[in-house]
Amino acid sequence: MPVFKNASPRSAAPDAAGRGGRLRQEGPPLSARPASLGDSRRTDDSFISLRGLSKSFTGRRGTLLALAPVDLDVRDGEFVSIVGPSGCGKSTLMMLLSGLMPATAGTIRVGGKPVKGPNADIGIVFQQDVLLEWRTAIENIVLQAEIRGLNKAAAVEEAQRLLAMVGLAAFAGAYPHELSGGMRQRVSICRALLHRPSLLVMDEPFGALDALTRDQLQVDLLRLCAERRMTVIFVTHSIIEAVFLSDRVVVMSPRPGRIETILPIDLPRPRRLAMRDTPAFMHHNHAVTDLFKSLGVLREEDE
Ligand code: ADP
């Protein structure tokens, strides 16, 4: 595995899997994206660009501002985590980014194109794996290709490759009830990646897993990211998880959610679990923790 040295490691990684390969033969062409988008300050060529993005919900009890206007740029190949207290609008932000919910105001561009409806060039993983219990692991993964009208034989081949990458080659024929929580979530990650999306959106994907399984899935996810070129937006409540995985951590305020700060995580890749005990890691961890304390999100007995 290559050792990455810059702040956006996967943007320099080769597209070993060959984006746009055989899986796309029978489907409509999905949006292309530039090979390299460079400096994140050059907002005109960011892979993801959010401008003044906000969302309000109107119900019987009036209007609730869930997400205050947000500006964010994400480079091609970047891994960006979003951390914030419950109810600050993280899931809302993911729904907007995925085109599954219209914004109240502002714009979203992904791969240079405005997002105005469901984005086809995206993989989504939620906290619940939402696997179909009557389909085997591989059938659940291939469902992605069936929905998109992609080549079935190539999809099966790709699904087998993905299952092997996450250590589940022997479980292709297992039904969801025969799999542990961690295995089920691995299958749902494989399903999200089957069509080789440019963007992977993950909303608390490891939130329901035990601590050890969660550690293992973090490691597995980083390996997948190193092997496949994609941009990842990852929502989590865990500061340690965010720091461990990310190139940058976006810290959100309590509702109405706004971006409080964005912390670059300059730890080398590949990341190792043991890095969590290093002073550099702890420095980042403390920076986010202190910020949440200053926002009143975290409080200690004597304060
Ligand atoms: P988070 O993911 O950070 O926990 P959410 O994005 O789920 O936060 O929710 C942000 C706020 O918006 C919450 O107060 C929530 O109750 C509200 N909200 C989310 N979705 C809806 C909806 N469909 N209708 C009304 N209110 C909603």
Give a quick rundown of the structure:
With 303 residues, this protein is α/β, with parallel strands linked by helices.
Topology:
Elements: E1 48-59, E2 62-74, E3 79-83, H1 90-97, E4 105-110, E5 113-114, E6 122-125, H2 137-148, H3 152-165, H4 181-193, E7 199-203, H5 211-227, E8 231-236, H6 239-245, E9 248-252, E10 259-264, H7 279-294
Parallel strand pairs: 3-8, 3-9, 6-7, 7-8
Antiparallel strand pairs: 1-2, 1-4, 4-5, 9-10
Adenosine-5'-diphosphate is lined by residues 57, 59, 64, 66, 84, 86-92, 255.
Describe this protein's structure.
This protein is of the alpha/beta class and about 300 residues long. The protein folds into two domains: about 75-120 and about 200-295, P-loop containing nucleotide triphosphate hydrolases (Rossmann fold); about 135-195, no CATH class. Helices cover about 30% and strands about 20% of the residues. It has helices at about 90-95, 135-150, 150-165, 180-195, 210-225, 240-245, 280-295, and strands at about 50-60, 60-75, 80-85, 105-110, 115, 120-125, 200-205, 230-235, 250, 260-265. A six-stranded mixed beta sheet has the order 6-7-8-3-9-10, sandwiched between helices. Strands 2-1-4-5 form a four-stranded antiparallel beta sheet, covered by helices on one side. The chain binds adenosine-5'-diphosphate (ADP).
